Amino acid sequence: MREEMYVTVDGKRLRCGYTTGTCAAAAARAAAGLLLSGEEPRSVRMAVPAGNVLEIPVEDLRLEGGSASCSVRKDGGDDADATHGLMVEARVSLRPDGAISVDGGEGVGRVTKGGLDQPVGSAAINSTPRRMIAEALEDARRAAGSASGLEAVISVPGGAEASKRTFNSRLGIVGGISILGTSGIVEPMSDAGLIGAIRAEMGVRLAEGRRILLLVPGNMGRDFSRGMGGDSEAVKCSNFIGEAIDCAAEKGAEGILVVGNLGKMVKVAGGVMNTHSRQGDCRMEIMCAAALEAGASAEEARRVLGCASTDDALDAMGPDLARRASGILMDKIAFHLRSRAGGMRAEAVVFSSKYGELGETGGARGMIAEIERQARK
Questions:
Q1: Contact between residue 54 and residue 184 where contact means Cβ atoms under 8 Å apart
Q2: Is 326:359 a contact under the CB 8 Å cutoff?
Q3: Which partner for 354 in 157, 259, 270, 311 could form a disulfide, CB atoms 3.0-4.6 Å apart?
Q4: Nearest CA to 200 among 220, 184, 180?
Q5: Quick one: which of 267, 256, 264, 321 has its CA closest to 295?
Q6: CA proximity to 336, closest of 245, 239, 261
């Protein structure tokens, strides 16, 4: 029986799952065992990189000629995603050369762009899952006392359709899902998974020759960035502005341009680099401080503090005060972005849903021109 694992997120006890990589490795271990020794386990006990030992249920074992197959149902726990419930199948065959190899079949994507974990033309089975699958095959071979070579082909029926609900098409992975996982375990609502997706998309952009990365926190930023190469260039960083800057610097980008709505970017003006509301809501306090620095009266400052949204705060200031306060906010945004970026160039464009563009940092216009040139190459 599977031993359940739980984490506590925002005060809730949530069940962990396991990655597609863990599913593939467990299926490969079961199929190899069936092929080499005839054993038909109901489950596979295996250690994952996180250090846990999991008991993974296996299904549909089949021995057909010179190959054996087994499937494991993907279980994302309480963090169900596009792959939750899919069957991850491994077909293991003998190789005459004594080697161990791993490839992808139906429903597993193929890499068509550089900058990802695997080279162009390879199955989208990342390094850690590849190693887990190879180790599972070696374990089965050792248990059977065999020196035979083994090839595992990983397939995911329904993977091509499920991939339409993922970022794969943006990353240049076509025809199916990716086999992923660095820990082997899916932790519900894990920020690490989102940051990993940001990192992967940046890798693709840089491998395409982009040196300046356009970052947008959300769909509004993506829409506003159109005309800056935003249709194809923008990397959505969600609330993780600081982590996205760190990733860009780590990967060797020359600069980043953040295009975002004031509702999020006002937090950056206060040095807040994760803009999720659970990290705190200091929007009106920062707006009020900017208004006071711009010459607001005590009564105007009180009105700003009482607002529910940044657009309401701009209304409360009036056009002249709002213009001056926006300039102050842009200076503070520039300071905090550049401080986080270190030696990497960092600029921003900030807009309001109601008023359009509110301001841009000093080098933003030149950086937009560079991004537009990149997009035309």
A1: yes
A2: yes
A3: 311
A4: 180
A5: 321
A6: 245
Residue 75 in contact with residue 86, Cβ under 8 Å? no
For 95-148, the pLDDT digits (tens) are 999 999 999 999 999 999 888 889 999 999 999 999 999 999 999 999 999 999
Written as one letter, the residue type at 359 is G
Phi-psi bin for 118: left (phi > 0), alpha (psi -120 to 50), beta? Answer: beta
Query: Which of 8-17, 131-140, 244-253 has the weakest average pLDDT?
Result: 8-17
Going by C-alpha positions, the residue among 168, 193, 186, 187 that lies closest to residue 23 is 186
Segment 26-31 shows an average pLDDT of 97
- Token pair for residue 277? 């509301």
- 6-186, what's its fold? CbiD-like (3.30.2110)
Q: Which residues, including other chains, have CB under 8 Å from residue 26's CB and lie 6 or more apart?
A: 44, 46, 54, 56, 58, 72, 136
Residue with tokens 């006071």: 292
State how far the Cα of 6 lies from the Cα of 213, in Å rounded to an integer.
37
Mean pLDDT of the chain: 91
CB 262 within 8 A of CB 312: no
104, two tokens: 């992808």
- Residue 28 parent element (H or E): helix 20-37
Which ranges in the chain are annotated with CATH 3.30.2110.10? 6-186
Region for residue 113 given its phi and psi (left: phi exceeds 0; alpha: psi -120 to 50; beta: otherwise): beta
If we measure between CA atoms, which residue out of 309, 91, 76, 270 comes closest to residue 180? 76
